[in-house]
Every structure is written in C-alpha cells, then in structure tokens.
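sorry to bug you again but im stuck and you know this stuff better than me. theres a chain ive been looking at and ive put its sequence and its fold in token form underneath. id like you to explain what the token line says about the fold, in plain words if possible. anything you notice is useful, everything is just below.
___
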Amino acid sequence: MRLLLVFIFVLSISANSYAQQDTISLKEVTVKKKRTKKKKSNQFSNLNLYKVDVHAPNLFQAIRKHLGNARLDKDANKVVLLMDRIYAPTSGSKYALWVVDGDIYGDAMPPGLDFNSIRKVRVLKTVLETSKYGFRGASGVIEITTTNKQN
C-alpha cells in the first residue's frame, strides 16, 4: 500500500512539473493576427447579363470585359487589338474593324449605339476568324450583335 502511495505521489509531482512547463511555454508564445487579403475592387461591377457596362462613358469601356488586353488609341479614338503587330501587312491599318449586326463601320467606333441593346460581343483576332472580312479585318474584328438586328 505504501508503495502505491509513493508511486501516486511521484506521479502527481511529475504531472505538476509538466503542467508548469506548459504554462511557461504558453507565456512565451506570441499570437499573430491572421493576414487577410484585400479584396480588389470589382471594376466590372456594373455589368449586365451580357457582360456590358451600360453606365460606361463610351463603347470601348462598355465592352471592356470582352476586349482583353486591347487598348484605346485616344488620339484617333480607335481600338488596337493586336499589340504584336505595328500595322496589318495587307491593309496598312493597326486598328480593329467594327462590325455591328453585319454592317461594317470601319476602324472608327460606331456612334450612337445603345449599350442596353448589345447582346453579344465577339473579338476576332486570328487569320482564320477574320478571313471573311478580307484585308480590312487583318488587324482584328470586333463583332457586336444587338437586339435591333434585322434577320
């Protein structure tokens, strides 16, 4: 019986020493605040069902989601789709061709287009895609389909 009491006493002393060591080690631990990523502002928050910004100041900004890395030449107010080409070897123009409901508008943005009526935007860049527009489409084509399309 004495042996059992001695064994329990020794066991309790060793358990207490471990508990003291744990509390000491917990005092030394520093807790860092969890880093949270900043949410990026959603620049495409005004988009409608067809990914068109109906509150945009111009057509380029309205369909920006579709254009990828295209840029707007502000001096000429025309769109450059293919950055790797200085100019199209056949047409001599570096600006994209605009086509709205099958009507070719040239390299200038079509004026007076209602952004709410845009239903589909296709950006054509490869030779295979732009072949139906011939030389004029060599620098890329932006096709827009609206609700006003005549069948």
